[in-house]
Amino acid sequence: MEEENKITRRKFLGKTIKTGAGIMAASVASKFLLKKSDRYSALAAGKKVTEYKPKEGLAPGKIGGPTGFEGAERYQYGPDEAPGRAIEGLRKLKADGKAPSKIVVMLPPGAVGHWEKPFPEGAKPAKEVFYEETGIEIEPVDVVETEQMTKIIQDYQTGARGYDVYSFWSSDLADVAASGALYQLDEFVDKYKPDWTDPQWGFVGGETTLTATSKVYGHIYNALMDGDYQLWIYRRDLFEDPKERAEFKARYGWELQWPETWEQLDQISEFFHRPEKGLLGCTDLRNQYWGFTNWYQRYTSFANPNQFYFDEDGKPLIYSEAGIQATREYVNSMKWHHKDGISWGWPEQYANMAAGGAAITCAFPNMPKFLDNPNNPDSKIVGKIRSGVAPGRVIDGALIRRTVWWPSIGHGVAANTKYPEAVYLFLQWASSGKIFAWLVANPAGYYDPVHISDFKDPIVISSYHEYHIPTYVESIKRSSPPINIPGVVEYVTALDTNLQEALTGRKTPEQAMKDTAEAWEKITEAKGRDKQIQAIKAARKAWPNVVDRPTIV
Description:
Blueprint: H1 2-16, H2 23-29, H3 82-95, E1 102-107, H4 109-116, H5 126-134, E2 137-142, H6 145-158, E3 165-169, H7 173-178, H8 186-192, H9 207-214, E4 215-216, E5 219-220, E6 223-224, E7 231-235, H10 236-239, H11 242-252, H12 262-272, H13 292-300, H14 321-332, H15 346-354, E8 360-363, H16 367-371, E9 385-388, E10 392-395, E11 398-401, E12 403-404, E13 409-413, H17 420-430, H18 433-441, H19 458-464, H20 468-477, E14 479-480, H21 488-503, H22 509-527, H23 529-539
Parallel strand pairs: 1-2, 12-14
Antiparallel strand pairs: 3-13, 4-5, 6-13, 7-8, 7-9, 10-11
């Protein structure tokens, strides 16, 4: 039954994950994507690299990076920077016969373009830049998200060694690591010092983000390559309309603005819910296998600074006032959704928002990128949207606002690879602040920003919009981790199933949380309570401590 749940979950998500996040997104991005037949063409050079002469176009003191376009120096690096250390480490390993001639990289189809499509004009593809600096070919192999876990387990258990790099959802990292398929990266991190927590080039949130997305039991298994933070989008044109503002204040007694609390969000949703006129109040998702991310936000904001999923003895905390009230709100707020909202996924949500069909929603960070885009002929909301930090609750005078990241593509070193150190160094290069900013700026793929440096890059800012960048950054700082301890798929399935039961009226919020807590206890016992407690305690470092002061009166 557990395996059946895993397969069903992935099959469903395969239809609604970012590669299918909406017709609008596809129509904008399609002109940048490579045809499958183009993906495995030979490198332009076609020659074995044996010497590493300085490339033309490098700024003084730099040893590598892209060239050939204006501003390329932003992405170039010296020998004492994380990508430079990776390149020099690879060159030494290559000289010593300890590096492969080719690294086979599992990638979701939506990420292949980052590696094979040159960007901007004048640049070489990322895999070719890596080849000319190391003599190591990168072979991307696209595997749809729904099949990645199956491919990983098959490759690992059979010893086939078909991949050197595995791709997976970071939200499933604990289960992937527990399978034994991933090489633990701590020794290489200590030796080569990636910039993941660097104050200039590292992740927004630094060590907190690293722990949340990349560690299990305190050990590193993942090179994060995506920033799937759930962000709130609203209709600026509606919020700024004088008539709407006057009517709202007369009805609720406060100025119409982006809300700070869930109660305020629900009031705004109620106010704008006019289905007879083609306008929905709010369309944050409620469907199976995704909607629970919006329950997470309501639940984790119930304590100062965080409402945890488990206590430090491994006992579930959800059968409580916090869990029951979050579920009650989750169910009650359905009244401002579409009548079929329980079945809506990303395609319906994006299409509805593009048509001007909702006042508020919560989506991937890329919604403004795709829908507030004058090159998107299907969008009626160009110039009409803005974004806001997730609402929250006032706890002991402090405003606790928590969003969540989910699922975020990650890459790990295959445990069976013959060259784990060299493969790790490729990932250090790819996930470094400078190279990732260049990759994520490329519209041919669906990686989303997560590094501090991404949000200062002019190309990234232009694509994601200047108004959206502060919201994105502040949301990361306030982001709770999803459940990510061994058994994550089982824990999430139990939660999701019971939330669906509550949404359809088959269970009360109280019963849904009681049943979820009981299921979680059984999973914890089956996995081994002592081991689960160890994972829970290690994951505490993944939680944010940012609190705010309420300002809306």
